[in-house]
Structure formats: structure tokens, C-alpha cells
Amino acid sequence: MGTPDRIAKAEIAEPLLEIEDLTVALPTGSGPRAAVDRVSFAIGRGEGVALVGESGSGKTQLARALVGLSPDGARLSGRVRFMGRDLRALSDSSWGEVRGPGIAMVFQEPAAALDPVRTIGEHLAEAIRLHRRATADEVRRASVEALAAASFPDPGPALDAYPHRLSGGLQQRACLAIALAPAPRLLLADEPTASLDATVALEILTLLDRLRAERGLAVLLITHDLGIAARHGDRVLVLYAGRIVEEAPRAVLFASPKHPYTRGLFRSAPRLAAARRPGERFSVIPGAPPDLSARGDRGCAFAPRCADRFAPCVESEPALERVNGGRVRCFLHSPAPGGGARP
Amino acid sequence: MTGRRPLLLAAGLVKRYAAPRGLFGGASRPLAALRGVGFRIDGGETLALVGESGSGKTTAGRIVARLVEPDAGSVSLDGEDWLALHGGALRRRRREVQVVFQDTSGSLNPRLTAGEQVAEPLRIHRLVPRRALAEETRRRLADVGLPPETAARFPSELSGGQRQRVAIARALAPSPRLVVCDEAVSALDVSIAAQIVNLLLDLQERTGVSYLFISHDLAVVARVARRVAVMYLGAIVEEGPADAVVARPLHPYTAALVAAAGGRTGERAPGGSPASALDPPSGCPYHPRCPVARPRCRTDLPTLETAEAGRSVACFFPGEANDMKGFSETFHRPHA
Prior knowledge:
CATH topology of the largest domain in chain B: Rossmann fold
Structural class of chain A: alpha/beta
Largest sheet of chain B: 8 strands, mixed
Strand order of the largest sheet of chain A: 6-7-8-3-9-10-12-11
Largest sheet of chain A: 8 strands, mixed
CATH superfamily of the largest domain in chain B: P-loop containing nucleotide triphosphate hydrolases
Shape of chain A: globular
Number of strands of chain A: 12
Oligomer: heterodimer
Distance between the termini of chain B: 40 Å
Radius of gyration of chain B: 21 Å
CATH topology of the domain at 9-102 and 184-270 and 282-328 in chain A: Rossmann fold
Number of helices of chain B: 13
Helix content of chain B: 25-40%
């Protein structure tokens, strides 16, 4: 077992969200297993942090735990503090003060997040009235402002529109407007563009960047796409089998990814620059991520798929060690117990 | 273009769907999913159809696979009229064109094991003697990188990547001439998608099968296909060798896709939602989003014309968006 990922508080001047040793264990056929495994990191005010992971990495369970929406039967441990407040100790009623005006969320499927029988205006009015008293005129004005903040092209008429009348891109803008209406400090965006067309997706991500710059909104962008993460996060966290395996400022991660998993992801992601020569193949990471129920508790979780593994990797798990500007969990970059010749 | 006969030639494909009526009725308007689409696929080659939702790329693939009948247009397979086949004649030859879908929950039978999924087409088309069926099934699973014990597993017991391998083994079992891959890797994780793309390339080299590779992802397409056709609102707006199209797009929409995929045009894409096929704009359907549109583009419809050797484009001002300096910064306003 590795050590918990301690984080120096001094690293982030004004931490908005601090997560320490967070574990989310889910019931499986072979007992509870950690979908999120001793994760620690912090998000500063107005900071953009991208969390990258493939399906089953635990990225969605992590986000849900942050807003108290873990599934029934989930067991949580560790600490989560938001603006100095201990979120793990919140009662159901106190969550109402955090969700919305503190932490807001947007999801992958905007159509599923919107109620099909209510207009966009009704959604917005509910979000606004949940957190303050307002007259009908004030609600209308605040609603138009929220839609305008989400760069909705024609806010007035949109208030009377039902969700199905809008394209996927506009539905996601409406979801963003609803999330932004109570002026949150942190936005959790869970694969916000995975269901959108490429040109529309880029617009939504550009909008998130602008909201950070203009309003000081902090964003935790959860994505499977390393390219999106590296372009739209100040800092990137890479999650594998519930563990943070690498963390780095985007420039550092782009210039020199350290963990073999991160390097493999960069290599296997298709890039336009490289047209394929005849016979050429995508570079791939062999195998597949481990199932939750099949996760071993010894060694590095990535070792079975890793081309660079050597003896210590299957014996014990490396700690998350500081390596020029970032942190990486790999014996190639930290002392391995009992030596062990590196490959 | 080579002088040899194409494996598949599609011309003038038109497909209209009746648009859904509003809650209180009202006149039903036809929705043009395809507005005259043609392409050719040579033996052992891959043509990619790339476009966003509503571009008509899936409808084009379904017509080729005989899952949807066009309202007009022709498709020939190996010089024969492929759309003229019906009933028993079509059933006997259906195996020549197979499909791999994005979602295996629709293409694999949840009650059949992986082995049975692959054995079924071999048995139905009587491609293997009964006593050799089990052995052949194992061989076919091995061809797609699945170990023999996979044969006894049900789809629900397999990962997404393994299920897509089974779907590919099933599609290739009857030795098709052409496989329509409709967003075949879009639902998979990056590291698994790369494995499946490599598998498709390996199988093509080994068997000489042709692919119609349908995808929204220009970056994947550029690695898979030698030729690419870019679709927008039911029509092909640009067609040519994949490397040339990506390196120097001629149509402003292609330039936007290249930008969105992080290509050399920059990281910012132009804004705007795809126009609705229900209510297509006048003139060039792309003009409301186009950074180089002129008055003419609002009234006249450009047709697909040869622009240079092996490349064609439907644009009055080809290449301008790509050459535009500051293209990214000047244009990202949203459009309703």
C-alpha cells in the first residue's frame, strides 16, 4: 500500500476545495472495493483543474462524492473541505447551501439533466428562487443574464422554449446558465462535451475558459480526453484505477508526461498532424483497465499493462512523488524499495 | 482515381424523412437527410465519411448496407445494381456488405454467447461444414485478438472493447467485400479505440476487405482512411485524399473541423450550431456559420466541383477560410 497523497497547503495560495485521502468504496460481488482510492488534491479560487481518466477510473464517483451524491451503499472516508467547511459532516439540509451557490454541476447529457415538460425559463426560475427571494421581474432579469453569461444567442425567446426545441449545444448552454444562476464558486463539469459535435464542443470549452477568466469561477473539468484536458486545464490530474498517477501544470504535462500510462494515452490519442503511412498503426496500451472487483491490493495498478515495469512494480505501490513541477506515482521516477534494477 | 472498376459506386443518393409534427399537428415537412450524395470505394480501400450529427453520414451508410431505401439515386456493387436486389436474391448476397455499429447492445444478441454470435453467420451462409464450425469460430475469435475461452461468454460478461471485437468478428465471418463501420470506435476509451482501429487495419491487410468508415472524429478518420468525404447537412462538401484534406482544407467547414480537432488552423473553432435539416438556410447551407461568406453564398447553392487533382469541394471561395489570418479569434460567435 502506498502512502496517502499529502499535499503541501502552501502550494495553493487560496484553496477553495481541499480533498485529502478521499476514498469511495462501492459494494461488489467480492466485497467493497475502492472506486476512488486515497485521492488528495486541492483547487484554488478561479483555478481550472482537469481530471483525466478512462471509464472505470473513478472520475465520476469522485465528482459525485464532492457534492454528496454518491450512490446508495457507497462508503466514504477522508476529508473534503470547501471554503473551510467540512463537507463530509454536512446534513442533508445543509447540502442545499453548498450545492448551487457553492458547487454547481453540469453533466454529459444535457437532455437528461433538463426536465422535458418545463421551459428553460422555469428551470432558471427554480434555480434562482432556491437560493434567494425574488419578484417575477427580478427572476426574469436574472434568467436573461444567466443565459447571456452562457453566451446563449437569443436569451429572451429561449425562456419560453422547451428543452427538446434546442440543439445539444444550446441545451448544454442552458444547463450552464442554470448552474451559473446562483453564482457558484466551483463548477464540476463531468464530460460536458462528450455528447456534442466537435465544433460545438470547442465552443462550450472556450466558454468555460472565459467564465473562469471573467468571474473567477473555479472549474473541475472531468474528461476522458487528454487533449481537452491539456488545452483547457491550468493543471491536469490523471486518474487510473481510482488512484492519481500523475499531476502536473498543463505545460509540464504536455512537454514531458512522466507516467507510462500518461505517455501511453498521449501516444494512442489520434492527432491530426500525423497522417498514417501505409502499414503504420496507432501506438496502443495493451490490455484494458482493471475491473473494480478485480483490483489487486499490491503493486502498481498499471503494472499489468506497463511496458516499463520491473520487479518492484508488482510488489509495492509507488508513492506520488514530486518530479520537476508535477507529481508522479512511478518507480521509474522515485526510489524503489529493495533497489531492483530499472529496465 | 485509378482506372480499375470501383467496388462500390454510389450516385445521386437522396433520402427524405417525414419530419415529426408538432403537438397540435400542422403540416408535416419533409426532412432532407441526403441531398444528392455520391462516392466511390475501391477494393481493399477505406473511404471515410466525416461530419457532425445530422450531416447524413449514417443514412448514407445504411443505404449502402441496404438497411434504408433511398428515394433516388443508385448504388452499384462490383458493377451490378445493388439496389435492384430484393427478397431471396438480396438475402443471398447480403453477406457481401456487413455493418459494425457504435453500440454493440444493438448488434449483438444478449442471449447468444460470443461463439454463437460468430458461428451464426457462418452457419446461415453455409460457409463451413457443421463439424468444423466450432474450430472455425475459435479461429475467427483469435483473428480479432480474443482468447478461446471468450467463446463461452455472453456479451454482458465482456468489456466494451471485447464486445466490439466480437461484433467485428461477426461482421467479417461471412467474408464480406465491404464493411460499413458506423462510429465503430466512438463509444470506446482512447486506449481501447486505438486497439480496435489497429485491428480493423490488420484485418483489411489480411483479407482485402473495404471499409466505409463513418465517424464524427476527423483525427481518427485521417489515420484510418486514404480518402475522406466531409458531409454537411445532407451533402458532401469536400472530398479528397485524407492527408491533403487535413493539411489544407478547402471548405470552410472542413477548416472548422480541423481546428476543433486541434489541427494546424489553431485551437479555436468557429462557432455556431449545425443548421437544421428541417429548415435549411437558403443558398449554401453553411453560410450562416461561415467566416468567408459573401452575398452570393446566401442565394446560390455551390455544387461539388473538382478543385485540383483528386480533390473536389462545394464552395465558391475554396481555401479562403484556411488561409485567413486570425481565423480563430475573429469568429466564434454562436448561432441559434
